[in-house]
Amino acid sequence: MIQSTSPPEYFLDQNGRLTQPLQLFLTTAFGLSAPSLKETVWVSFEEGQLNTIDRWWCRITKLDRTFSATVKGNKVFYSKKKRTPLEWLYLIAHEQVHRHDIDAEYFFYLKYITEGVFTSYRNISAERRAYAISSLAPGKETDALTLLLRQKPKMTGALLPYIKEELSQRLSNKMV
Ligand SMILES: [Zn+2]
Question: pLDDT higher for 138 or 108?
Answer without folding.
Answer: 108
